[in-house]
Amino acid sequence: MTLSRFAYNGKRCPSSHSILDNSRIISEECQKELKVLLHHYYPIEIDPHRTTSEKIPHMVEWWTKAHNLLCQQKIQKFQIAQIVRESSAMLREGYKMFFNTLYHNNIPLFIFSAGIGDVLEEIIRQMKVFHPNVHIVSNYMDFDENGFLQGFKGQLIHTYNKNSSVCENSSYFQQCQGKTNILLLGDSMGDLTMADGVPGVQNILKIGFLNDKVEERRERYVDSYDIVLEKDETLDVVNGLLQDILRQGDQMEMQGS
After folding, report:
1. Which of 196-199's residues contact partners 24+ apart within 8 Å by CB, and which partners?
2. What pTM was estimated for this model as a whole?
3. CA 37: distance to chain centroid?
4. Residue 187 half-sphere exposure, CB side, CA atoms within 13 Å?
């Protein structure tokens, strides 16, 4: 949960998966089965003592089982907007400045999510910040001709395969033509590879949001990210950096002219 809040007033905020998993359109029996999967696989996902290659088969198994359960629920397309509206989903404080600054400066915002793309997109739309520069690669639902969920489109995206291998034909790479600097925001070790495969990149600044199990995961985050924000539910640091980078860019342009 990078752009979404992890918690608010001490209470956990829902991810795009949990918005759907815990909604009224999912049967009680299915909710129980999804919780069993969560309690089994989530500790594996964040285990600092396992390698990424050890985790990947478990992540594929988890996502596949969860998606199969959801496909049995007769979910209809129009219900997605309703369940998002009824949920307690929140973006991090400062999200409007973040989205609007990128849009007004013609900077592409690429969101690489292992969640459910339809739900994530709807959250951003309802927050009124789904600008033309926003591009999402995620697990998008596939609905049949009657509007019922029948599967998921494309290659499965989980926590540890967020890289060019799952979006080679994405317009994202066209958007990034000529862009040499990337500000990468992540909240897991799997997010570190999100810029892999982007051509012509010279500089990447990696900012990690450490939301959970802080003490046991701190060392790996500090070793891997350039900046680590612990239990920070805002985008204040990111917005501050953006403003500074843009200001310096303006000054260089003025000097050049």
Report:
1. 196/163, 196/164, 197/163, 197/164, 197/165, 197/168, 197/173, 198/164, 198/173, 199/173
2. 0.88
3. 20
4. 23
Nearest Cα neighbor of 70 from 27, 112, 114 is 27
Question: Distances in Å between the alpha carbon of 72 and those of 35, 69, 148, 149?
Answer: 16, 5, 10, 8
Tally the C-alpha atoms within 13 A of residue 194's C-alpha that lie toward its C-beta.
Answer: 31
Give the three-state DSSP class for 112: strand
Q: What amino acid occupies position 229?
A: L
- Token pair in block for residue 189: 């070790």
Longest pairwise C-alpha distance within the chain: 66
Predicted confidence (pLDDT) per residue in 168-227, tens digit: 555 666 666 677 889 999 988 888 888 877 777 888 999 999 988 888 889 999 999 999
Both tokens of 235, joined, read: 């985008």
